[in-house]
Design a protein that fits this description.
heterotrimer, A mainly alpha (250), B alpha/beta (256), C mainly alpha (221), B: 256 residues, Rossmann fold, three-stranded antiparallel sheet, C: 221 residues, mainly alpha
């Protein structure tokens, strides 16, 4: 066995993963909190007002990182799913399944903040703008993965089915994006794009990047927490859990 | 060890069912490449013609083992009778061997032979007649469904009277016989039969015994699972008793 | 290859035996399309504008309705286990089933589309493009739908879930097809859309049977 696979298998052993994730989770939450507090402070109190959109633009500090994360998590979910399907690594299956609700939450946040931003900008809560529509489709794709997973009783079978669906989705994702863009340019003229022009002063840009990094730590922390709980639930009859309980009681 | 393969003692059938490929030669060849540890090699030398080997097989459902550390091997030309109580995992074992399920841990070494699987679900179509079902099975298993072949198969299965009826209109036992027909088109395969005697009358059970005897004479392997008194009557079998995890000492401990 | 052909023949024979099941999606299509003039008013200009979208959405719904049963009978009676253990390539067998499905549901939709176009007052010059787009698009419904059908085959509430799984994936087909028809209506070239649809169909023809076979393996385990 090559060293990479050895590492994966070692990290994938439930007891070791449980221990390692337990050490990592507090740090991830802490880094997320620090970055978010700083980023939000900068975003709402320090960054200058946009000359075109006024104060309403500030919602991009939530909207844009959430939209980025929803996309990134879908791709990661498919990668974890592929690893789980190909090498039958349980922890990868668990990561894929645990990613779905987090990604769906980010997609929903992006949709809601997009609508809120739309009200002052477009005068209505919903416009069939290309990005919002793509975001909506992505949200539906998440719903599909989560729906399939919850419909199958046997946990490992459910995880593998959901992983496969995520893989099919990830192949189609670029095609969906491209076709929605095309559809949008056909049916309506250009609208004001969220995020505005490409040139942003640093005082606006840096908080955005900080928030983008913060959400990644959030994902890491939430993913590990979910995966840990799922693992514990699945293995509740196994020896290592009993041993762990005994150790904790001492 | 390769003996001449006659599929059927009835001379007329030899040219209808093409003789099976020489399974035994393939089996020994496979062993050389598959055996991994020294211990195994010793075992392999002792047991000539080992064809199927199952090592430390573990299968879990809902993260509870159905059975664990299952080890056995099957020689060419052997008929293995898997016995065990309800829930001991007989069906699961057969489904693993058939490749429908994947083992959670452990390995199954199979020779490069096809498998013929007959489970609780028979794989016949209710809206097709017995003849049409058999014609499809024959073609599906790369045989020419000539009238001669199909008629001979129907008479082997004692289904002459209902040959033109829709399978949906038949009794459970007759449907079972129709499904057994698929085995006749897979003479070179490893037969995996889950409760082949269920639903059959005395005559039908004799049909199964006859098929099993033919397959054994050809050097073919049959693994069949049965829970009760229904066992092959007229041929030599080896028994494998599967002790499910639920019957094991460890499970009782874990419940306590 | 003989297994592929025998399975294709068997599925077509079964479809002939149970005509009602084959005809139901088609009747469903006709009923759904006829609801639109009743709901939106019979104004010819409005109908002409929405014709392509209505026909395509109705075709999508009708296909999904029939896709739910694509593997269910074979799952229930054990045929799928036979396919899996037969030693034949499961992807190839799945492809045979998908082709049979398209011939019994997709093709009738294509053949009936001129009637629907007349009902909805679609401009005559757009009709050939509508038929072409259906010829290229309905196979994709069968191909992608088969993946969803394979994943939901053993499940209780399979039908609703199937729609949730495949509708988002079928959005590109819908967009390209209605784009092609409206381009033809406006007398701008529609070949770009149709070529994209053809490319998409080829891509799915290449990938879907494998994904579908993998899904069936999971569903059978």
């Amino acid at each position: 066995m090559n060293p990479v696979m050895k590492f994966i298998h070692k990290t994938g052993s439930p007891a070791y993963f449980y221990w390692l994730s337990g050490r990592m989770i507090p740090w991830l939450w802490a880094i997320f909190a620090v970055l978010t507090i700083w980023g939000m402070y900068q975003a709402f109190f320090v960054a200058p007002t946009d000359y075109q959109q006024g104060e309403s633009y500030r919602i991009i500090y939530i909207h844009v990182p959430a939209a980025w994360m929803s996309m990134m998590i879908y791709i990661l979910m498919a990668i974890f799913g592929a690893i789980g399907l190909i090498w039958r690594i349980r922890i990868a299956e668990i990561f894929a399944v645990s990613s779905a609700p987090i990604g769906a939450a980010f997609a929903l946040i992006a949709l809601i903040t997009g609508s809120i931003w739309g009200k002052p900008t477009w005068g209505t809560y919903w416009v069939w703008d290309a990005r919002l529509t793509s975001q909506l489709v992505l949200f539906f794709l998440y719903l599909g993965v989560m729906g399939l997973h919850s419909a199958i009783d046997e946990p490992r079978k459910a995880a593998r089915a959901a992983a496969l669906l995520a893989l099919v989705g990830v192949v189609n994702l670029p095609i969906i994006h491209f076709s929605v863009d095309w559809w949008n340019t056909l049916h309506q003229g250009t609208t004001v794009k969220i995020g505005g022009g490409s040139k942003m002063p640093n005082s606006m840009l840096i908080p955005l990047l900080v928030m983008a990094i913060a959400t990644k730590f959030y994902y890491g922390a939430a993913l590990l927490t979910r995966a840990r709980n799922r693992l514990l639930d699945q293995d509740r009859r196994r020896g290592w859990v009993a041993k762990k309980i005994k150790e904790d009681q001492l | 060890m390769s003996k001449p393969l006659k599929y059927n003692p009835r001379a007329a059938l030899v040219d209808i069912y093409p003789p099976a490929k020489d399974n035994t030669a393939q089996c020994t060849h496979e062993l050389d490449t598959q055996i991994v540890t020294a211990v195994d090699k010793q075992v392999a030398e002792q047991e000539e013609n080992v064809c199927i080997r199952v090592e430390n097989l573990l299968f879990e459902r809902w993260f509870i083992p159905v059975f664990e550390s299952l080890n056995f091997s099957v020689k060419a030309g052997e008929t293995l009778l898997v016995r065990g109580t309800n829930g001991s995992g007989k069906t699961t074992l057969l489904r693993l061997l058939a490749g429908i399920l994947d083992p959670t841990e452990g390995r199954i070494h199979l020779p490069e032979l096809p498998v013929a699987w007959l489970g609780h679900k028979l794989g016949i179509k209710d809206s097709l007649s017995v003849r049409e079902n058999l014609q499809f099975m024959a073609r599906f298993h790369n045989m020419q469904p000539t009238d001669k072949l199909i008629n001979e198969t129907i008479s082997q299965l004692d289904l002459e009277r209902v040959a033109e009826q829709d399978a949906g209109s038949l009794s459970a036992g007759q449907r079972k016989r129709c499904a057994l027909g698929a085995l006749l088109f897979q003479s070179e395969a490893i037969w995996l039969l889950d409760e082949p005697y269920s639903n059959l009358d005395d005559n039908g059970m004799k049909v199964v015994d006859r098929l099993l005897t033919l397959h054994q004479q050809n050097g073919g392997i049959t693994i069949l699972a049965t829970h009760g008194a229904l066992t092959p009557q007229s041929l030599e079998v080896r028994e494998l008793i599967v002790l499910g995890y639920q019957d094991s000492e460890r499970y009782r401990e874990s419940l306590a | 290859m003989s297994a592929f052909i025998s399975l294709l023949k068997r599925d077509l024979l079964l479809a002939v035996r149970s005509r009602a099941e084959v005809l139901q999606p088609l009747f469903f299509l006709l009923v759904v399309v006829s609801l639109f003039p009743l709901g939106l008013g019979p104004g010819p200009a409005l109908l002409a504008r929405i014709a392509a979208g209505v026909i395509w959405i109705a075709a999508l719904l009708a296909s999904t309705l029939s896709l739910d049963g694509l593997f269910r009978a074979d799952f229930d009676d054990g045929s799928l286990e036979q396919f899996l253990t037969s030693g034949h390539s499961l992807s190839l067998l799945v492809l045979a089933k998908i082709i049979a499905h398209w011939l019994t549901t997709g093709l009738p939709i294509v053949l009936f589309s001129p009637l629907l176009a007349v009902w909805l007052n679609l401009p005559r010059e757009a009709l050939p493009v509508l038929v072409k787009s259906l010829l290229l698009g309905t196979p994709v419904f069968s191909l992608i739908g088969a993946i969803g059908a394979a994943l939901t085959v053993g499940l209780r509430q399979g039908g609703q879930l199937l729609a949730l799984l495949i509708f988002p994936l079928l959005i590109p087909v819908l967009i390209l097809a209605t784009g092609a028809v409206s381009a033809a209506t406006d007398n701008i070239g529609s070949s770009a859309y149709l070529l994209w649809m053809a490319a998409y169909a080829v891509l799915m023809l290449t990938l879907a049977p494998f994904a579908c076979a993998a899904s069936l393996r999971i569903s059978l385990s």
